[in-house]
Amino acid sequence: MSDYVITTDSNSDVLPEFIEENHLTVIPQYYAFGDTVYGDELNMAPHEFYETMRNGELPKSMANNPAVIRERFEQILKEGKNILHVAFSSALSGSCNNVMMTAGELLEKYPERKIRVFDSLNASLGEGVSVYRAVELQKEGKSMDDVYDILMEERDHVNVCFTVNDLYHLQRGGRVSKTTAVVGSLVNIKPILTVTADGKLKSDGTVRGRKKSLKTLVSRMEEALDLDTYGKDRMVAVLHGDCFDEAETVAEMVKEMGFSNVVINDVSPSIGTHAGPGVVGLVHYGKQR
Q1: Fewest CB atoms within 10 A around its CB: which of 181, 219, 240, 270?
Q2: Which residue range(s) make up the domain with 10?
Q3: Residues 132 and 63 grouped into a single domain
Q4: 127 close to 155: Cβ distance less than 8 angstroms
Q5: Residue 119: which of 149, 93, 96, 144 has the closest Cα?
Q6: 203: enclosing H helix or E strand
Q7: What is the mean pLDDT of each run of 10 residues along the chain (289 residues)?
């Protein structure tokens, strides 16, 4: 039996059935419409969340709660287990820092235990593929320290490219200027964005039209592949904001390239707050980002 437990946060967008099957502990990230806070016991289904945004209500996101982190981590430590936590990018939120601070406090109380916090420097399934990888390595019998080291070695090779259907939400979050958002929407310009090696979002050009933006995600993936190091057996993930059919279209293009391990999942509300309905992204291993 393994002496460590893998944990993550809800921003990793790991499929619920995988979480249940592998008994993963997930720290909630929070979001709110008005005075109503969601994220833990109270949640909105993805379609309901994005439909609420389409109807004009604007949510806000919040970091995780140190008290909740402490409660869930301490339960694991009391059982005599160590913890490997896969965290949301420290460059995009204070959540990773909250986990690290709480871990430090708990280790003073439980000096015989170990907590390793892996800063994915990524978001959504860009973070999530590292959770899948950690579980895979754990099942192979790798120690917690070995898994951490492998995740660190591979971190800069987890590539994320995504596009949005509406520039407004990126503008509201400060990712593009108001002028770009207005002009881009008028002429049907779709931005292509990536997550950099230091875990930040970066604009990586524009294309005209939704269909071309989806094809561009796949062509960018083809350009960034490193099949000698990361073969076609590696996981590829497609994320979406309540536009499953388009995500499935991207997944089919990826499968036509010879990749069989392809997962699709919704973008969690706390990230969808900034990306908005219609975001589609592609995550894969490849050249260094």
Answers
A1: 219
A2: 4-154
A3: yes
A4: no
A5: 96
A6: strand 201-208
A7: 90 97 97 95 94 94 95 98 98 96 98 98 98 98 98 98 81 68 72 93 89 97 98 98 98 98 96 93 97
